[in-house]
């Protein structure tokens, strides 16, 4: 009794301390949300006791199901198939429930113990999974994490961001429907709504991201099935007024779906601003390490269920291991995006005053065309993400060959970023948009979309901002006409007290270089077998043949 009393008192003390810490720590707005939740604190230890009881109830389902006896009496093949696995209860089941990290349930099929469980499952009274295309425990854990981050009623993850957006559009836009989208968006999304949806009789109207008045006119006069836009847009970093747009969509019975791949829920949460759905390419910031493909859709349960049904038919499921990687990446989302916000902001400010840069597209800059909306703190409380775009000035003509070449020289001269598509990972990525995203597009199409020859998309990683800025600064020295980006320099021979950075070795004669060994050569009269022996002895695969200069010239 004394031990029990001591433990209870000790637990109560720790719980009260934790409760006090929660109340006193964290931003004021988070405190108010917690305090206004309308839920009283449970008794000390009550949560743990409830979880323990639930676990015991789960384990008791396996009582009396000792199939090991049957397996042990079977043949070798039966033992190899079922040994150690057929008995589901006991320590394995308990340890699975107790595991700190979410287990990767790498199973395509989920089984039942009897017919009654199948009937109960079909009637919705037995919670489990049936087949991997319709759900998986690891995948569901990721969906619930995304629901929490977005403040959504439900969530659905799929094989890629494009799978998420196409399945959503096919599920929610009926034949002869009407979609309203914005001008600046990911090219493949635009390709789907302009080439695939029209085959279903779906009409598309495109508006400028800032033209909310035009959206209101369309909704009030023509009506629309669904509004879709990125926030922030790709690649020109435009900003929409999510709050006003969501209110209009609800007033005129139009589904509002916002793609927040660029800002993430750390910087922008459309559900809290009234949108029905929020979509993201989980491949980018959510996973955060450039090693997994995933798409995510969250929002009103009614719409998510409609999309989930079609998703089960089309089959764009995410692999359980991929779901685990995204879940693990989300644990550091706040840390990563905070650093990427800072890096992009610092780089945008540096580029904004650089004479080789024509334009910088980043919402925090006062001259950004959507800065008034972007500066509303309740819409963007923490920043704008790690992606910015800017335009190399070149010869002053954004469509000229010289501007194209100058931009290519700048890209090639960068030393820290990787050149490639995508964004949101811990490593910085850079691309000349004209080359990577719009290489096959004619000039008139690129002019219509403002994809100039000098447009660069720079997706900051989590490196030090000073290093990124210094690297960009040195790369910009090569944008002048006639500049040549040097190849990587070979290792430089150095002597005592000679500094590499002075490149003093360049001004010495060959024979003055320290530790210089005589060249390995053979004469024209050397036999092939002797030449092969020389190469083997010196671990080389080629060597020069020395012969006398022609016409009687001196030397060799």
What does this structure look like?
There is one protein chain. This protein is of the alpha/beta class. It has helices at residues 2-24, 28-35, 46-60, 68-73, 76-82, 90-98, 115-122, 137-150, 161-172, 187-195, 212-221, 242-251, 264-267, 301-314, 320-330, 333-352, 371-374, 401-413, 433-436, 443-449, 465-475, 528-537; strands at 154-158, 178-182, 203-207, 226-230, 255-259, 277-281, 295-299, 357-361, 387-392, 418-419, 429-432, 455-459, 522-523, 545-546. It has a seven-stranded mixed β-sheet with strand order 1-7-6-5-4-2-3, with helices on both faces. Helix 8 (137-150) packs parallel to helix 15 (320-330). The model is unreliable at 1-37 and 489-501 (pLDDT under 50).
Key terms:
single chain; 556 residues; alpha/beta; 7-stranded mixed β-sheet; 5-stranded mixed β-sheet; 14 strands; 41% helix; globular; disordered N terminus
């Amino acid at each position: 009794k004394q031990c029990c009393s001591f433990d209870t008192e000790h637990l109560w003390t720790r719980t009260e301390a934790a409760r006090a810490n929660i109340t006193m720590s964290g931003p004021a707005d988070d405190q108010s949300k917690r305090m206004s939740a309308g839920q009283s604190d449970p008794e000390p230890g009550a949560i743990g006791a409830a979880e323990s009881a639930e676990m015991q109830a789960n384990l008791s389902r396996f009582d009396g199901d000792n199939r090991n006896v049957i397996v042990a009496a079977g043949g070798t093949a039966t033992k190899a198939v079922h040994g150690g696995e057929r008995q589901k209860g006991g320590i394995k089941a308990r340890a699975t429930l107790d595991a700190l990290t979410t287990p990767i349930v790498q199973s395509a099929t989920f089984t039942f113990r009897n017919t009654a469980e199948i009937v109960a499952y079909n009637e919705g009274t037995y919670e489990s999974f049936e087949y991997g295309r319709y759900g998986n425990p690891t995948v569901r854990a990721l969906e619930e994490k995304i629901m929490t981050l977005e403040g959504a009623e439900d969530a659905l993850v799929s094989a890629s961001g494009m799978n998420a957006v196409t399945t959503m559009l096919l599920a929610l836009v009926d034949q002869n429907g009407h979609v309203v989208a914005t001008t600046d968006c990911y090219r493949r999304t635009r390709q789907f709504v302009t080439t695939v949806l029209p085959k279903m009789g779906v009409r598309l109207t495109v508006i400028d991201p800032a033209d909310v008045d035009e959206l209101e006119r369309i909704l009030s006069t023509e009506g629309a099935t669904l509004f879709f836009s990125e926030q922030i847009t790709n690649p020109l970093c435009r900003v929409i007024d999510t709050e006003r747009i969501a209110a209009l969509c609800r007033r005129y019975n139009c589904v509002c779906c916002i793609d927040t791949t660029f800002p993430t829920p750390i910087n922008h949460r459309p559900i809290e601003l009234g949108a029905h759905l929020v979509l993201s390419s989980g491949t980018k910031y959510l996973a955060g390490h450039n090693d997994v493909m995933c798409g995510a859709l969250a929002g009103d349960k009614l719409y998510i269920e409609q999309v989930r049904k079609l998703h089960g038919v089309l089959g764009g499921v995410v692999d359980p291991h991929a779901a685990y990687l995204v879940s693990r990446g989300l644990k550091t989302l706040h840390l990563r995006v905070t650093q990427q916000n800072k890096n992009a902001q610092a780089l945008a400010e540096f580029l904004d005053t650089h004479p080789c840069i024509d334009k910088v597209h980043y919402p925090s800059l006062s001259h950004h065309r959507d800065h008034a909306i972007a500066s509303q703190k309740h819409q963007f409380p923490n920043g704008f993400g790690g992606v910015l775009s800017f335009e190399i000035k070149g010869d002053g003509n954004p469509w000229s060959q010289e501007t194209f070449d100058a931009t290519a020289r700048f890209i090639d001269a960068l030393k820290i970023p990787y050149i490639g598509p995508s964004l949101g990972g811990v490593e910085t990525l850079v691309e000349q948009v004209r080359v990577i995203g719009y290489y096959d597009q004619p000039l008139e199409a690129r002019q219509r979309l403002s994809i100039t020859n000098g447009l660069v998309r720079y997706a900051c990683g989590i490196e030090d901002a000073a290093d990124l800025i210094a690297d960009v600064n040195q790369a910009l020295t090569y944008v002048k006409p006639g500049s040549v980006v040097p190849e990587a320099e070979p290792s430089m021979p150095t002597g005592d007290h000679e500094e590499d950075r002075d490149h003093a070795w360049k001004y010495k004669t060959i024979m003055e270089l320290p530790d210089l060994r005589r060249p390995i050569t053979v004469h024209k009269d050397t036999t092939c077998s002797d030449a092969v022996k020389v190469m083997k002895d010196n671990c080389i695969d080629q060597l020069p043949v020395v012969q006398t200069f022609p016409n009687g010239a001196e030397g060799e």
